[in-house]
Amino acid sequence: MTGQDDLDRLFEVMADPYRRGFVERLCKGPATVTELAAPAAVQLPAVLKHLKVLEDGGIVVSEKTGRTRTFQMRKDAFVTLAAWVDHRQREMNAAFDRLADLMAEIPEKKDH
Question: Where's the HTH arsR-type domain (predicted)?
Answer without folding.
Answer: 1-93
